[in-house]
UniProtKB/TrEMBL annotation:
Xref: InterPro entries: FAD-bd, FAD/NAD-bd_sf
The entry's keywords: FAD, Flavoprotein, Monooxygenase, Oxidoreductase
Name by which UniProt lists this protein: FAD-binding protein
Record-linked PANTHER family: FAD-BINDING DOMAIN-CONTAINING PROTEIN (PTHR47178:SF5), MONOOXYGENASE, FAD-BINDING (PTHR47178)
Domain FAD-binding: 126-375
GO molecular function: FAD binding; monooxygenase activity
Species annotation: Streptomyces griseorubiginosus
Keyword Transferase part of the UniProt annotation: no
Amino acid sequence: MPSFHVLIAGGGIGGLCLAQGLRKAGIDCTVFESAPSIGRSGYRLHMNGAGGRALRECLPENLFELYMQTSRTTPRREVLVLLDHLGNELGARPHIGPPNDPVRPHTAVNRRTLRQIMNIGMEEVVRFGRTVTRFEEDGDQVRVHLDDGSSATGDVLVAADGINSVVRRQLLPEVPIVDTGDVGTYSIAPLTDELAATLPDALFDGFAGASGPDGAMLVYGVYQPRRPIAEAVAELAPGAAIDPVDPYIMVNLGIMPGTPFGREAPDLWKASPEERHAVLRRAVRGWHPALAGLVERIDTSTIFPVSVRRLQPADPWPTSRVTLLGDAIHAMPPSFGAGANSALRDAAALARALTASVHGEMPLLTAIAEYEAEMRAEVFPVLRASADPRAFDPDFLPDDLSVPSRN
């Protein structure tokens, strides 16, 4: 195989999956990740057939099995369930994506656990604490400049550095970041048998959301691993640095501007954890006792504020040796639980395209152009649907989205 090196800006979900896929194909790469280590931001991630297939394609067999065993147990229904504040089911919507595995479906993961799994064996590939600040194209090479004053050269640069991507801003400066105005909090409550016994069954389906008459919205996601994480690691990746994670239920608060609840909400970024918890308590006043009681069980130290931002779908751009994946090109609201799955889909598709080029099956720029065209065709409809104001309507399911029940 000829010498070929891929530079990856960003070591999140998409960047690590791409690196694993390239290494599996025998292609050298280097990942530059700004954070000093794998952080603790974010909790539960919904997984669908697109993301699961990408992991199967990119990961070695033992790490894919570790991902499966540390995924949540299979729910009774793989759907998004919408409730009112009294716990009454208003409707359910199937998850999007290609058909799921019928025997052991892709369900949900703990974000940090998945990143730790994908980091196994990548010690010589991932450079933590190194930020790409700009790039230069020079014929058949791309040079990246890093925040420590050093630089690196490769054949291809992949922007996997998220919604604030410095690579995208240089490559496609006309693509705006859109602040939706929606804010909220992420948090988790330890999922004990006692707590589980009090909760409506719908909260244990694929995903659940409940809304109140004043506009407050809570979204719930259970994480119960199929097997204790430490036990699975000991068998499948002995000695790997993966934290144990006890079962929990993620409780996310959504505050939409203009609603009665939104007009009363304080600045969540200036609020203390206790003040944020008080906002959550206020959101569920008069709600079903189990839903209100769940908020009381939240671990206050896990509450952090979020704002919902997204990108506009970019017009087709000239293909070059610099390309993009995941949130760097199609950051989307979490309405359809598709952000991480789309990044993984991109990673597998790009690894496949670059492998084909390295093996002489097509010219490099042709391979990248085909990857980008496919990504725009498959993921941009998800981005547009996720940004649609009707995204939490159980009957809203655009025809251009892939849905297993109608495939």
